[in-house]
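Marked as duplicate of an earlier ticket. Keeping the data here for the record.
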Amino acid sequence: MDRQEYIEFILDHFNNPRNKGALDDPDMLVNGGNPGCGDVITLFVKLDEQDRIADIKFDGHGCTISMAAASLLTQMVRGKTLAEVQQMDYGKLIDTLGREVVQSRLRCATLAMDTLQGGAREYPSRKALGQKLIQPIVLAHTLLTE
């Protein structure tokens, strides 16, 4: 794709986000934020018996790149185990969004992945205790002042 096609791809994910919303009774609810840009995201994850992502949704607000990346990420990780999510690198996500287009906004482009990987690292210890990983939903101004 050329630069304009990548921009159109990003705008499509921003204007028509995939998997935006909340899940009832998620196994994981994790928050992330990017104070430099004001982006805030909450990921809702439902896992199957093998800790594969059976369903995932996101909510939040932020710049075009962060919200488009969150939309794309939810499509990329469905069916993956938490271990596979932890092993993911930014390369495929960045290349799919258009490296040249998002290069100057990498923190925005990787916010959703960083948030999901943080939850994936923490979830096994919570599961061992018979708990879900549910972080309180954080208001935007709280993340921005931390």
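See parent ticket for discussion. The beta strands are 28-34, 39-47, 53-61, 133-134.
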